[in-house]
Amino acid sequence: MKIAIIGTGYVGLVTGACFAEVGHQVICVDNDPRKVELLRTGGMPIFEPGLEDLVRSMTALGRLTFSGSVAEGVAKSEVIFICVPTPPLPDGGVDLSFIEGVAREIATSLTGYRIIVDKSTVPVKTGEKVAETIRRYSPTKIDFDVVSNPEFLREGFAVEDLRRPDRIVIGTSSPRPGAAMREVFEPFQAPIIVTDTNSAELIKHAANSFLALKISYINAIAAICEAAGANVLEVAQGMGMDERIGRRFLNAGIGFGGSCFPKDLSAFIRISEQLGYDFRLLKEVQRINAEQMDRFLGKITDTLWVLKDKQIGVLGLAFKQNTDDVRTSPAIELCQRLLKEGARIRVYDPQAMPKARLVLPPSDKVEYVDTLEAVAPKCDALVLATEWPQFTKLDLPTTRKVMTTPIIFDGRNLLDRTEVESHGFIYKAVGH
Ligand code: UGA
Question: What's the CA-to-centroid distance between 30 and ligand 1, angstroms?
Fold first, then answer.
């Protein structure tokens, strides 16, 4: 099929590349001319495993093209996917101005029937507003349909998730766009669920909030484990073996971050409020998440006592492994709070350092180093803040030798306590 993708961020670019891979003809549109130029010349604006090769090969095959013009995208496609950002507003609501702007541009570019699909995460009833906007701004009366198709990919695993989704949600009550959407997704051989548009939009917020709830739940259990002398890793394993619960998203740590969970929780609480429901359960999820960071910092200050002028090595800046994304990253928040206490920090991340420098600028208190091994020398403590698997390869005997005091705070429960302690470290983790 001929597909246009408006917005080439994490969702748009990966979706475009994976659609091209299964044989669709895709044009990716972005309003940032530098990004379009970068992509046209084989560059990559984001780090995502497997993406660069895929984009390159699809571009070479001519199945994936890039443009700065929505009108060109509309002209060259049957189905148009909106994948633009929906950033948070200060009041917890969602800024829908990019969606509205794209809807207006589509309206003025329409020359024949098109299916307009919203893939961005949006509040329930946005599809209705998009349709209304297109009707209002379209100079002629042209037939179109608006469909909701929420995206469930995880950053860091985006290509993998798109190739093999657990399910595909198509939100439309009309047969014509329903059939076209099935054709778009048929090559992915994944279960498809067709719902009304409002339900599809709700599925996204409900799913993300539930996953966030699962994390806060295990973080609360971790606090109880610490108080009771139990081990959250064992508790999570025992709980997770119940198929109704499942082991995934039961990793205790310094809390969830990223551009999705914190934003989607606030938005869902707010939307519920507007619909007349006080979603106190989700407010508690937020509270536990914030408290988790306080508790972890408490461990650091309890152990190191005074942080002023202490040298602390921080491993990880991205909000999680396999990504260069530092938006709402707990690791960055941790760094900022250590700095506020007067500590000096030396930081390392396998991918996120260029983006981290913009929010955590290098200074006499913030030193960036290029390798994992370069972090530890003369440190009073090391803090693991992101769950990068390569951090488990830390050479413990050498690290022990070069540190001023051998203390490791593991905010992601990555290391093995017995092994770390056998090398003479003081080891503090979360919930065990
Ligand atoms: C999340 C959802 O998992 C995706 O399904 C969804 O499509 C996406 O949001 C979105 O709305 O676009 P993402 O934000 O990429 O994906 O990252 P996750 O892997 O879900 O991790 C989110 C945060 O939770 C990270 O900070 C991670 O470190 C933390 N986390 C995750 C935990 O603390 N414990 C866990 O057990 C799992």
Answer: 25
